[in-house]
Every structure is written in C-alpha cells, then in structure tokens.
Amino acid sequence: MGPLHIASTVKTPEIVFQAEDQRLVLSGRSIPENAVDFYRPVLDWAQSIGSDFKLTVQVQLEYFNTSSSKCLLDLFKRLEQSDALEVQWYFDADDEDMLEAGEDYDHIVNVPFKFVEIDPEA
Amino acid sequence: MDIRKRNDSDSCCSMISTDTCPVFSPSKGRWMGLATFDGKPSTSNLDTLLKHLEEVVVQRMEDRRVFRAVIECVQNLERHADPLRTAHFKLMGRSLNGEPRFKIRSLNPVQKGDVSQVERWIQQYTSLQELTVASMDDGALDWRILYRQCLDSGSRTPRGGAGLGWVSLAKAAVTPPQIRIIHAANGPKLFFSVEMACTR
Hints:
The structure holds 2 protein chains of 2 kinds. Chain A is α/β, with parallel strands linked by helices. Chain A is 33% helix and 34% strand. Chain A has a domain at 5-88: Transcription Regulator spoIIAA (2-Layer Sandwich), CATH 3.30.750. Chain A has 3 helices and 6 strands; from the N terminus they run E-E-E-H-E-H-E-H-E. Chain A has a 6-stranded mixed beta sheet with strand order 1-2-3-4-5-6, covered by helices on one side. Chain A starts with a strand and ends with a strand. The model of chain A has no long low-confidence stretch (mean pLDDT 91). Chain B is α+β, with helices and mostly antiparallel strands. Chain B has a single domain (2-197), classed as Heat Shock Protein 90. In chain B, strands 1-2-3-4-6-5 form a 6-stranded antiparallel beta sheet, with helices on one face. In chain B, a hairpin with a 2-residue loop joins strand 5 (178-184) and strand 6 (187-197). In chain B, helix 2 (64-80) runs antiparallel to helix 5 and helix 4 (143-152) runs antiparallel to helix 5. Chain A binds chain B through residues 11, 31, 33-37, 62-63, 65-67, 69-70, 73, 94-98, 100, 104, 107-108, and chain B through 43, 47, 64-65, 67-68, 71-72, 75, 78-79, 144, 147-148, 151-152, 156, 158-161, 164-165, 168, 172, 199-200.
C-alpha cells in the first residue's frame, strides 16, 4: 500500500493514509469546482487495495458539495472489495444534515459505517 | 463585480457588515436583502462571494444547512452561467414567527450550447419529482429517497453531479426549488430560487 498525502486548501480536504494504523483520514471541507480531478489520485490509490487489507476510513468533513458527494461514493464503492473495511463517519452533535449524509452512504454501499458524534463544546 | 450588503431601506451599503446585530431582526416577516452579487461568474469572483456569504450565514447564524445551500447555488453559477456575461445572485432573510428563513435567488445567462443539457436536467428533476410523489401513499414527496437514487445513479458530469445538487437543495428546502429557463430577448437565462429554514 503506497503513501498518500494531499494537503488541504480552503476548498479541498486534507487526505492522508496513515500506514502505522492503516487509517485513511479525510478532514476539512470538500467544495472544489472539479471534484473528479481532485479525487482521481485518491481513487487510483484505493484501486490498489487488496481484498484482505484492513482499512479504516475516517471522514471528518465540515462541508462537501454534490460533486464531491459523487466522488465519495466512488471511493466507498472501490473500497467495498476490502473484506476488513470500516468507515468512521464524524459529525457534530448539532449537525443532523451531516449525520443524514453518512446514513445515505451507509444505505447505498455494502460497507460497515460507525457514526461518531463530536461534541461541539468539547 | 459588485457585492453589496443592504440595510432595511434596501439602499446600497458597505461590502462587509460591521454591525453586531443579528443578521435580520423580526421585521414583520418581510424579506430583507442580505447580500447581492452582480458580476462575471469567474472563479475568483465567486470565491470572494462565497467567503462573504460564509461570514453572513455561518459566522453570524452558525447554520450549516443554509451555507451548504449557498455553496451549491454559488457553484451552480460557475457551472451553468455564460462566463462572459453578468450573473445575478441575491441572499435574503426574514424572521417568520420568530424563526429565521433565507431565500437564495439567482438569474444567470446560460450559454446557448448548454441550454438543452440544462433543460434535460430540469425535465429529469421534474419527472423524478412527479414519479416520487405518485409513488407515495400520502402524496408526500420523500426527497431523501430521491436524493439516494440520484446519488447512486451513474449520471454525472466532470464538474457536477448532473442535477444531484438541485435534489439535495430540494431535500433541505422549505418548499421545492423553482428552476426554469427564461428565453429572454438577449439570450437564455436560468432562474433559480430556493427558501431555506435554519436547522436550529
């Protein structure tokens, strides 16, 4: 599994694969005009994952546009091939829309989702 | 580019608000202009607009649902507007029975070559809406089901979700968004209007 690190910008998230604990973390906001171009290296990276690879995907996004939402679905679908995959979907306790977005992916893809509530006061 | 914040008398004010009052006060339920944009829908102009709107909506209202709608609407200007002609965008607010409401409205010239594609998406959106309404026992539209269908469909464009943005707006809106092509004398324009309630 190769390294992956994309630095954040004001419109795109930081995406990093932490090899030591086999964790792919997406954090920040994802509102690029061209999400397909932005996520292409991530999807290419995901293509190389073997079916026996254990991976945790942590999604800690504040905002994402609909163009990004399609790309996130592509990512989850590519990772479905991994038998030992879990998506940890973070959402602020007062952000029901973000929780709902995670539930929508959970409904569509065959990947276990764990919902992690963040206390905004913490 | 012209970004204006308007006061109660709707006269032109400074670009960025400096007062510490709520974005809009209980004002007999009338819509008040909060920000207006008239300019070329370039990336730099729309980035400036989005930054300004984030300040108006999020930093002062702490409401992510409305700002998510704002993001989609502003980015739709870049996706669907003729880059050489002026696009119009307006954010309005009002207090309805003590609850804040926002209205986002845009009118932008569409490139003639894009009109048929946009009309197809509007037709698709309308058809899906009608089909979903017909399928519900109580006649109510479950936008979430429709959203999931659109999200999982293979349809997409390089820069957009092929209509998914409109459905996501409809899912979160008070009433379904109004979308239509206006065939004006000086060229086709896309009219869009959506009303949002805050999540809290």
